[in-house]
Each structure stands twice: as C-alpha cells, then as structure tokens.
Amino acid sequence: xxxxxxxxxxxxxxxxxxxxxxxxxxxxxxxxxxxxxxxxxxxxxxxxxxxxxxxxxxxxxxxxxxxxxxxxxxxxxxxxxxxxxxxxxxxxxxxxxxxxxxxxxxxxxxxxxxxxxxxxxxxxxxxxxxxxxxxxxxxxxxxxxxxxxxxxxxxxxxxxxxxxxxxxxxxxxxxxxxxxxxxxxxxxxxxxxxxxxxxxxxxxxxxxxxxxxxxxxxxxxxxxxxxxxxxxxxxxxxxxxxxxxxxxxxxxxxxxxxxxxxxxxxxxxxxxxxxxxxxxxxxxxxxxxxxxxxxxxxxxxxxxxxxxxxxxxxxxxxxxxxxxxxxxxxxxxxxxxxxxxxxxxxxxxxxxxxxxxxxxxxxxxxxxxxxxxxxxxxxxxxxxxxxxxxxxxxxxxxxxxxxxxxxxx
Length: 409
Description:
By secondary structure, the protein is an alpha+beta fold. It has two domains: 1-70; 75-174 and 182-409, phage-related protein like fold (Alpha-Beta Complex), CATH 3.90.1690. The chain has helices at residues 3-26, 33-70, 94-99, 123-130, 209-213, 215-240, 269-277, 296-300, and strands spanning 119-120, 144-146, 156-161, 191-196, 199-208, 257-259, 288-292, 311-312, 323-324, 327-332, 344-347, 352-356, 361-365, 374-387, 393-394, 401-402, 405-408. The strands form four sheets. It has a seven-stranded mixed sheet with strand order 6-17-11-7-10-9-8. Strands 1, 2, 5, 12, 13 and 14 form a six-stranded mixed sheet that branches. Strands 3-4 form a two-stranded antiparallel sheet. Helix 1 (3-26) runs antiparallel to helix 2 (33-70). Residues 74-86, 103-121 and 123-132 have low confidence and may be disordered.
C-alpha cells in the first residue's frame, strides 16, 4: 500500500470516530458499550497506521537526500585559457554570468540558498529567464498557484470539503424545517484532501566554448529556449499529464465532465450548447474555452438555430479575445487534434492547483566533452499541478451534474 493510500485510509478512520462522537453528542449521551469498543478499535488501528506512514515518509526522505547528493555537480564552468575571472559583482546577462565565474555569487532567489541539486540562478537573471513567456501559456496564468515555500520541494497536503459524488454540494451537511421539539439534522461535514509534490522538469544542452565566450548571444539563446521549454512542457502536462512523475492534467482527471459530440470529427452547435450547460453557473465569469488550432475552421462556421454566428473574432490590438457563446477562447497546439477527446474544452482554471518547487537551477560541466571544447549545461525546475475537485458536482435538484472542466469527446 502506498503512502497516499495509507493517508486516504487514515482519513476514513478519522471520519468514522468523528461520526461516532457526533452521534452521541447529538443525542446528548455517552458512548454505549458497543460504540466505545468500536471507537477504541478504530483509534488503535489509526495509531498503527500513523506509525507506518511516518516510517514510510522517513525512508522516502532518506532516499531523496541520497538522490540529491548523487546529483550534485562536481565541476565549474569553463573559462578562457589563461584568463582570470574579473572580480565583479554585477553581470550583464546569463552568458556573462557563466563566462566570468558568476556561479560563485552568493545572492540567491528568495526561496532559499544554493541547493545541492545545482546552482540557483542569481536573482537578477531568474526574472530574465521566466518573464519571457512563450506562446501557449493557457493554464498557469488562470490557475491557483501556490508559492514554493520552505522547504520548497516538500509534499503539500490540502484539506478539501468533499462535495463530490453522493455527498452533494453541502458535503453531507444538512438542515431541515422542523417543528417544535423536532430532531435537528446531523451537520457533520465530509472532508477529503489533495496532495501536491513538485516533480522535476529538466534538460541539458551541449554548448561550444566559442558560444560561451560570446556572452550576449549565449544569453539570448539560453533564456529564450529554456523558458519556452519550461513553459511549454509544464502547460502540456497541466492539460494532458498522467499524474505519474508529472502533473495531473485536465483531460482524463476525476472531475472532468464529458460531452459526446453529435458527429465524428466535427464540432456542432449542439455540442457547444451541451458543454456550456455542463459548466457551473458561478464559473461563467471566469471560464475559458480551450481549443486545438485544428478546431478553428469548425468554430468559425458555428451558427445557432436562427443563423446567428457564435464565434466572434477578437481584436488583439485592443486586448479583446476571440469568444464563443460570449466566453473567451484560446487556441493551442498542446491539446488533441479535431475529432479526438479534448480537442475542445470549457474550463474554469481557478479550480486547478499549481505547486511551484525550487528552481530554476542551472549547472554546467566541461569534463564530458573536454577534448572537443564543449560544455554541457543543464537546466531544471520543480513543479506539480492537479485539479482539486474529485468528481463532478451534483446540484441541489439531485440530478444535474456540472464540472469546472467540461471536455468534448
């Protein structure tokens, strides 16, 4: 049984003892002999499970520490032969930082000191690397982003009111109209939890020493390419990730509400109408359509029963986005193509959690390609993401189900 499964079982045991106490409190009495026996049995089981979890976590922490030690860089960047690194405290850009020994600089980003997994990019250059947003950033700018914190890469557990499935929007809490002396309803809420643990995203590049000496060109290239990679790969995972070694994406998540298209390889008025009906009314002010670029010709031709055009072309010069049914629409190549599940989605990304970890880190080594005058540069960062709803939400009519993530299939 995994740590997550044991934690889930521990939550169930906790809910059981809470329910036993709540029932006795509601009836203004002590626990019966049978209830007390059940209570003690569950508590003992929970205590044993807690010890197992703590032991598993300690073992996992030791393994993580060993992995971090083994990944520690053992070299420094190449400098020009015979040259002495200038004793300067400011550097023009990332390339200048590499060339002139900036890896010795002790200034760091606000989230912590130099980490054993690599050299933390100095504060001056971290903004240069991350502010250059590549195309297709769909999720992060609209999601609920949790800062790295301290320690930055630790697992974060967030309690969630369990409003999903049969629990309903009030999470099993209830109130009733009662007469004088009537029994009041049980108001014990149901809870669950969401876990976020930053995953590593990284890559390496072989750079010639000539490019290293040409600091301005190196800075422009490194900043642009690694920023595009970090943004693009993260966004892809936020939309389509499996949750195994990477963030859990929207498509295929527990909370998705699927709408079956009427005609294969097409998007029709009836499809988008059903998708809008599956979105909670409270999300209409914050939701956006997410469409693969290949769906655009279908959307342009959409009309309602009266012949009114549903797709409105935006004006980027005035900051007006394209819209469908009055809701903004963004296009991306990170979702499946026309006719495939997820080619069109309607999402309220405020229900998507992103947990940043440490990074970005940059480290370099000249040893692997020493005889060819080349240097290996690696860049890596830590991040996780997941939708926090556990399933679709049943409204008070007891029948209608909605979700902040509606997906066309």
